[in-house]
Amino acid sequence: MNPILVDAHQDIAWNYFNNGRDFLQSAWLKRRREVVDPIFVQRYGHCMSGLPEMILGRVAVVCGAIFVSPVWTKMYPDEKILYETPEEAYRQGIRQIEYYERLADESERIRLIRTQRDLDAVLATWGEDAGLADHRLGIIVLMEGADPILEPEQIEEWYERGLRVVGPAWTATRYSGGTKAPGPLTDLGRELLDAMADLNMVLDLAHMAPQAAREALDRYEGPLFASHANPLRFRPDRPDRNLSDDLIRGIAERDGAVGIMPYNLFLVKDWRLGDRRDAAGMDTVIAAIDHVCQVTGSARHVGIGSDFDGSFGSESAPVGFETVADLWEIGPALAARGYEPDDIAAILGGNMLRVLRAGLPEK
Question: Phi, psi (5° rounding) for residue 176?
Fold first, then answer.
């Protein structure tokens, strides 16, 4: 099979419901429409993701997130995807998984991946003899912040709907300490991990507070990764969001992977939203990838998790990243720095595929 790319995190459903961004439409089309509203662009950034750019950038698989945030984190007056109670989080989460189902129903270019058989069917459309018209995008549903799961036992209901990856935290949830909210796993969180392990789901450590992430590494026996998280070395003031070398090594010891985010806020020391984007470029992204390789001793434990359009846009991404299609340029940049073709293929997609496949039933 020709090399493909896996993006381990995008808030596709959140963008539809909060920002009115139809994933089936081109990012450039949405940008032209949105530029007439400077307040919107200031809040949510220049759009970077759409199905056409995914296909052009050889993104064969993406983890599409279910994401709802607690009302006390509200950043903008027009923010819509908020909850006060677990029941509200549940209803909004179900609405988002229904959106992913609708995308697959409306577009022959999209397939929801619930099994290894589904994954193989998507990958076959990127084979040696496949042309542009043949390519399909597979979406694996991931939950970012587990509060839509009403209780640990309810994970079975979510699994039946197609959820395959769970990140217990965004900020703190009923299950785990998280970003800007340090703390351990809660008793409910430990029960959730046990219930996930029974189903062999993928655990996502992104956004988990360091104390909770360390405990999860010791406790959880199923497949795991950090879908979108950068090394702490690049932003040492953000231990609540970036990963220490110790956590990176722990993920590698479990044969997991770290999804590097091309996002200046987590790549450049002292960078703030609104600062010049040219504080970072492709070299910065490659340096973050290389750091994980150096810490773990191989290219086996790093991939890509863009989080593009996750409340930021191209104005906050390193220079050279205008849309998701530009993720493909990471490959030639790695080659120019001496990375071997097999390692490049692993970084672009193979490492994340290995972890995700491990969390899928055969059929």
Answer: -165, 150
CATH number, domain with residue 124: 3.20.20.140
φ and ψ of 177, to 5 deg: -65, 150
Tens of pLDDT, residue by residue over 250-259, are 999 999 999 9
The closest of 336, 351, 261 to 302, measured between CA atoms, is 351
What's the DSSP call for residue 339? Answer: -
Cβ neighbours for 188, distance < 8 A, ≥ 6 positions apart: 151, 152, 174, 175
Is residue 363 assigned to a domain?
no
Alpha carbon distances (Å) from 189 to 215, 227, 317 = 11, 19, 33
**Does a structural domain hold residue 266?**
yes
- 64 bridge partner residues: 10, 141
Domain interval for residue 184:
5-358
41: left (phi over 0), alpha (psi -120 to 50) or beta: alpha
Global pTM value: 0.98
**34-44, pLDDT tens digit by residue?**
999 999 999 99
Q: What is the total count of domains within the chain? A: 1
